[in-house]
Amino acid sequence: MRIDIDRDRLVETMEEQAAIGGTDGGGLHRLTLSDADAEARDWFADCADEMGMDLRVDAFGNMFARREGADPDAEPVLVGSHLDSQPYGGIFDGALGVVAAIEFVRTLDDDGIETERPVEVVNWTNEEGSRFPPAMQGSGVWAGAHDIEAEYEKTDADGVRLVDELERIGYRGDEPAEPREPYHAYLELHPEQGPFLEETGADVGIVTGIVGLRWAEVTFEGQANHSGTTPMRYRDDALVAASDVVTAIRRLPGSLGERTVATVGSLTVEPNSVNIVPETVQFTTDIRDPDESTLDRGVERMEAEVAAAAEREGVDYDIEHTMRAASVDFPDRPVEAVADAVDDLGYDGRRMVSGAGHDATHTASVCDTAMVFSVSEDGKSHTEDEFTSWADCYSSASVLANAALDLAGRVD
Ligand SMILES: [Zn+2]
């Protein structure tokens, strides 16, 4: 039997949170552990309090609000996302997942529904990673992917330590930052942040996994020299070698996999002067695909292109592999709970793999995990122009609520 969330209240709750750190451009500037983030956390705590939920804050600031189940010893179902935002980001990214989880519990209360399992609503610390690296930090600490002491020492652009900010805003909690007990499942609703759902005319995304990624930093070392007096045959130009690789990376996905994407997103040139042959160029490569062997082939091809470009131009090179995240396949049980909810509600759902990392990346190593995606208009994300219509917020939040209830087990 379905539950119906209150559409008007969902919109009101979205607007309430959007006012905290809201920008003139209609977006959100709520960097993790800032004053605005503290205010959003207080708001989350108030919501939990009003619902009579028990709130725990762990040593990394992750917040868990609990609604008991008929069987308090049953493994809980965890639902949520993050309330921090990118600098001048949108009001939906992260917040929609937290608000939908709150509305799910409010609906249970409204309808007097008891669940077999406890339900916990979570607000993860620092999903965005734009103030303190890395992204998905709070869930990563909780899942054991990062050492908490090392993450405490991370500093922002002003040299402020993360742990000091956590203490300053009063959200360094008493609980160890780790799963307190085994969890039955984790469900997260998030905007797609890409154009796939809109392009295919779908209402909602049934996320079956998250792509893996490989990051590297490449350095070419040539010879600086006068741009007027150095004949072309004498040049060891690091930027020319880098340019060959940039275009090779752009062409790489076409010959690898249908879903491969590859990017050179950052590049620095030294000495970076109009009349000097470039001596040192450093740039990053980012290759993503759902398939691990495709990723490995992508990295091999990137390495071969770098070596060939260095050889052609007569420059030295170095490749440092800076990050490797394995792709995640969500298990059938929670994915089918999402798919069943989509069917029950009569929506057009599309199965898809997430091209971005999420807190679900880390929870997947702790418990059965799945995600619901809402439509992102024009695929825009990490900008004030990010937009998901209220209709799409409602349909995706309804799917989340019904899938979560399915996993939590309704007591009749
Ligand atoms: Zn997000």
Pick out its properties.
Peptidase_M20_dimer, Aminopeptidase, hydrolase activity, acting on carbon-nitrogen (but not peptide) bonds, in linear amidines, 23% strand, single chain, binds zinc ion, 9-stranded mixed β-sheet, elongated, Amidase_Cbmase, alpha+beta, 12 helices, Alpha-Beta Plaits, 412 residues, 36% helix, 5-stranded antiparallel β-sheet
What's the topology here?
Blueprint: H1 7-18, H2 35-50, E1 54-57, E2 63-67, E3 77-82, H3 95-110, E4 114-115, E5 119-124, H4 137-143, H5 148-152, H6 162-168, E6 185-191, H7 196-200, E7 204-210, E8 212-221, E9 225-226, H8 238-256, E10 261-263, E11 267-270, E12 276-277, E13 280-289, H9 292-313, E14 316-325, E15 328-329, H10 332-345, E16 349-354, H11 359-363, E17 368-374, H12 390-408, E18 410-411
Parallel strand pairs: 3-5, 3-6, 6-17, 7-16
Antiparallel strand pairs: 1-2, 2-5, 4-18, 7-15, 7-17, 8-13, 8-14, 9-12, 10-13, 11-13
The chain binds zinc ion (ZN).
Keywords: Hydrolase
Pfam family, one: M20_dimer
Protein name: Zn-dependent hydrolase
Task: Write up what this structure looks like.
The structure is a single chain. With 412 residues, the protein is an alpha+beta fold. The chain folds into two domains: 7-210 and 327-411, Zn peptidases (Aminopeptidase), CATH 3.40.630; 212-325, 2-Layer Sandwich (Alpha-Beta Plaits). It has helices at residues 7-18, 35-50, 95-110, 137-143, 148-152, 162-168, 196-200, 238-256, 292-313, 332-345, 359-363, 390-408, and strands at residues 54-57, 63-67, 77-82, 114-115, 119-124, 185-191, 204-210, 212-221, 225-226, 261-263, 267-270, 276-277, 280-289, 316-325, 328-329, 349-354, 368-374, 410-411. Strands 1, 2, 3, 5, 6, 7, 15, 16 and 17 form a nine-stranded mixed sheet that branches. Strands 8, 10, 11, 13 and 14 form a five-stranded antiparallel sheet that branches. The protein has a two-stranded antiparallel ribbon with strand order 4-18. Strand 1 and strand 2 (63-67) form a beta hairpin. The longest helix is centred in the last third of the chain and has 22 residues, at 292-313. It is elongated. It starts with 6 loop residues before the first helix and ends with a strand. The structure holds zinc ion. Zinc ion is lined by residues 82, 93-94, 127, 190. It holds the Pfam family M20_dimer. This is Zn-dependent hydrolase. GO terms for molecular function: hydrolase activity, acting on carbon-nitrogen (but not peptide) bonds, in linear amidines. It comes from Haloplanus rubicundus.
